[in-house]
């Protein structure tokens, strides 16, 4: 590969990492054309960008970033590597698990850099799949905040006739 082309690829990878800092390193070697198409289609539908990279170029970008946590994924850059870039932190992990259930032998999870944390090793896939997205967390917080207010409103609506009526009668009797 010519030096100019390498520089262009490095620049593209750097721009992609700035745009979507969450990524998974996977191995998709050995998939036939039909399986690769199925994987790419599933990635597209899940909002995941899948690219195949040269390990040395990706490693160069990581080292150039100066991020120590990001550098922890470098040992996973062995053999064939495909990068899954994502906005939603747990989307690739859920997709990999789903594809395995459907019988697709790959992608094999190698490592990930999600929410400024490095996850290395196939055993981390379950942890990544259980990470809640920003939208899920906001939804849970809103539900928790609304719950006490709903309980009060519900109690007032259900018992309004008996409780408030009884309270009014008691106050009138005391006069």
Element-level helix/strand string: HEHEHEHEEHH
Regarding CATH, which class of the largest domain? Alpha Beta
Shape: elongated
How much β-strand is present in the residues? Answer: 15-25%
Assembly type of the chains comes to single chain
**Helix segment count?**
6
Strand neighbour order, sheet with most strands:
2-3-1-4-5
Give an account of the 3D structure.
The radius of gyration is 26 Å and the shape is elongated. Strand 4 (108-114) and strand 5 (117-120) form a beta hairpin. The mean pLDDT is 85. With 175 residues, it is of the alpha+beta class. It is 57% helix and 16% strand.
In short:
The protein is of the alpha+beta class. It contains six helices and five strands; from the N terminus they run αβαβαβαββαα.
Task: Please describe the structure with a list of short key phrases separated by commas or semicolons.
175 residues; Alpha-Beta Plaits; elongated; five-stranded antiparallel β-sheet; alpha+beta
What does the secondary structure layout of this molecule look like, with pairings?
Elements: H1 3-19, E1 22-27, H2 33-45, E2 49-53, H3 55-65, E3 81-86, H4 91-101, E4 108-114, E5 117-120, H5 125-130, H6 134-174
Antiparallel strand pairs: 1-3, 1-4, 2-3, 4-5
């Amino acid at each position: 590969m010519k030096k100019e082309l390498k520089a262009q690829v490095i620049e593209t990878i750097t721009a992609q990492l700035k745009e979507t800092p969450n990524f998974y390193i996977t191995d998709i070697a050995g998939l036939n054309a039909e399986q690769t198409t199925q994987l790419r289609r599933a990635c597209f539908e899940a909002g995941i960008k899948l690219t195949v990279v040269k390990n040395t170029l990706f490693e160069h970008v990581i080292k150039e970033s100066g991020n120590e946590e990001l550098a922890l994924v470098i040992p996973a850059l062995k053999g064939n590597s495909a990068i899954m870039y994502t906005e939603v932190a747990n989307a690739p992990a859920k997709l990999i698990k789903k594809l395995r259930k459907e019988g697709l032998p790959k992608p094999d999870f190698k490592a990930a850099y999600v929410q400024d944390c490095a996850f290395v090793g196939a055993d981390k896939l379950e942890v990544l799949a259980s990470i809640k997205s920003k939208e899920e967390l906001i939804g849970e917080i809103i539900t928790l905040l609304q719950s006490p207010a709903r309980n009060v409103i519900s109690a007032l609506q259900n018992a309004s006739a008996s409780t408030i009526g009884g309270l009014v009668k008691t106050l009138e009797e005391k006069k």
